[in-house]
Amino acid sequence: MKKQKIYQVLKAQDQIQQYRLLALLVIICLLLTSCGNDKLQKLSYADTILAFGDSLTIGVGVAQSESYPSILATLSDRTVVNAGISGETTAEGLARFDEALRSAQPALVLLLEGGNDILRNMPATETKNNLDQMITMAKAFGADVVLIGVPEKNLFTSAHPIYQELADQHDLLFIENIISSLIKKPKFKSDSVHFNAAGYRVLAEEIHGALVKNGAL
After folding, report:
1. Residue 43, domain member (yes or no)
2. Residue 42 belongs to some domain of the structure
3. What is the pLDDT of residues 112-171, one digit of tens each?
4. Could you give the CA distance from residue 195 to residue 205 in angstroms, rounded to a whole number?
5. Is the separation of the CB atoms in 107 and 49 below 8 Å?
6. Residues 14, 73: one domain?
7. CA 170 to chain centre
8. What are the C-alpha distances in Å from 30 to residues 2, 25, 39, 165, 215?
9. Structural domain range at position 30
């Protein structure tokens, strides 16, 4: 009987070890799967983020320290270059994009542009083509790109369809509706199209959260 009990105890211990090993393997698989799903390369503390765009990037309506790139720099503990120009179209942005890449040497580009094209009723095909060229240039430079959607010329719409098309085409991390969401809320705006300090902070926090979730931070 004693031998039988010893055998049962040893068998139970062996099963426990097997369960533990199985659980460990499951955890490892989950971790590997999670890492494999990251859309962005991990940024070192020496890496630079290039925030490229128009007035929403430069921070019209607030002090420079309250622009979303400035807030993101604090949140991420990374250098964030603010390369926004108020009133810029995508054609104008494309013309200076190569120089901006060479100057900042970014590992990551945040692309928020196209609002002025939409406000001026420029052809969507032209806007899409300009953005497509910027994305292609950034990727050829070796930088990841995060595309931030700009809504159509309608208060109640989400991002213009060209942004989703570009995100799918280039397999980009796409932040779709943060701009359209903020524009609909007067408490986050300094005028009809620009944000106040609270609005730019929400924008920065949304981008920061997406960078964390997708492996950059």
Report:
1. no
2. no
3. 999 999 999 999 999 999 999 999 999 999 999 999 999 998 766 789 999 999 999 999
4. 14
5. yes
6. no
7. 14
8. 42, 9, 16, 30, 15
9. 1-37
Mean pLDDT of all residues in the chain?
A: 89
HSE-up (13 A, CA, CB side) for residue 95: 6
Residues β-bridged to residue 50: 81, 109
Shared domain for 28 and 53, answered yes or no, is no
DSSP string, 25-60: HHHHHHHHHHHHT--SPPPPTT-EEEEEESHHHHTT
- Which of 2-16, 17-31, 143-157, 173-187 is most confident? 173-187
The token duo for 89 is 């179209």
Please give the single-letter amino acid code of residue 37. Answer: N
pLDDT of residue 38: 81
Assess contact for 48 and 78: CB atoms under 8 A: yes
Residue of higher predicted confidence among 13 and 121: 121
Q: In the prediction, which pLDDT does 154 show?
A: 76
Question: Which letter does DSSP use for residue 77 in this model?
Answer: T
In the numeric block, the tokens 């609909």 are attached to 184
Residue 37 has pLDDT above 70, yes or no: no
For the chain, report the end-to-end CA distance as a whole number of angstroms.
Answer: 60
Are 99 and 92 a contacting pair, CB within 8 Å? Answer: no
Q: Domain holding 55: CATH number? A: 3.40.50.1110
